[in-house]
Specification:
The chain is of the alpha/beta class. It is about 35% helix and about 25% strand.
């Protein structure tokens, strides 16, 4: 039933020291611009949602990130999710109070799965996105943490996603490290696996290079939303053109 819903296009902005950056396979970082200006531009172009990830999140810069979230909320008129370094109910309170619509947790939830329960109980599942960085080794898809640098022993992507949803996650943000930044297309198999087996929306991330990749991940990968970064930041794919092509290919997409 959930796959009958309108599909969403979500630009992702990785934030480092207040600026938008992008890398390939989680490394080789380069700057892409001001996050508030980019967010505004994407909203104007017809993006459905935005994701802002503080990739250098520390306790020290939590207030700095909250200030940025306030600014984003003031100038960006579409829903947005924020993540990076979120470890507690208090962290989430600060970011939701600053104007975020949803929050994303990753490594901290792997370390302490009860965090998902706690956040869902305090704020509601609709505010909680479980981000999963996954790597396929040829046999199984394994969960990685710490920005995709560290494999988690005996933690497999499908099982972790199911556990996360059972604990209260209202959405899964699935990033394939094999595909991230490569522009060779999304990870179809694991995306379809999660989309068909979970009762919550699955956002596909990692590998978008052209409009056909979005068509594939919606039609074959059964994703509910598709996220990309550099192809939007550097103007390789324009959101209005992408949505027009998706509509022409029979994908249920919002066009204003």
């Amino acid at each position: 039933m959930k796959n009958m819903l309108t599909k969403r296009i979500i630009p992702c902005l990785d934030i480092k020291d207040g600026r938008t950056v992008k890398g390939v396979n989680f490394v080789d970082i380069r700057e892409a611009g001001d996050p508030v200006e980019l967010g505004q531009a994407y909203a104007d172009q017809g993006a459905d949602e935005l994701v802002f990830l503080d990739i250098t999140a520390t306790i020290e810069n939590r207030s700095t990130f909250a200030a940025l979230v306030k600014k984003i909320a003031r100038y960006v008129n579409i829903p947005f999710t924020v993540g990076g370094g979120i470890r507690s109910v208090d962290d989430v309170s600060v970011l939701l109070d600053a104007g975020a619509d949803k929050i994303s947790v990753n490594s901290a939830a792997v370390k302490n799965p009860e965090l998902i329960n706690s956040l869902a109980d305090n704020f509601g599942s609709q505010f909680v996105v479980l981000a999963i960085d996954t790597h396929f080794d040829g046999k199984k898809s394994q969960v990685y943490v710490h920005g995709g640098r560290t494999p988690v022993e005996n933690l497999w992507t499908k099982e972790w996603a199911k556990e996360g949803v059972s604990r209260g996650a209202g959405e899964i943000l699935l990033t394939s490290m094999n595909h991230d930044g490569t522009k060779q297309g999304f990870a179809m198999d694991i995306t379809r696996c999660l989309s068909e087996s979970l009762p919550v929306p699955v956002i596909a991330s990692g590998g978008a290079g052209n409009a056909d990749h979005f068509v594939e991940v919606f039609a074959e990968g059964k994703a509910d939303a598709a996220l990309a970064a550099s192809i939007f930041h550097f103007g390789e794919v324009k959101i209005p053109d992408l949505k027009k092509e998706l509509r022409e290919k029979g994908i249920n997409i919002r066009i204003e």
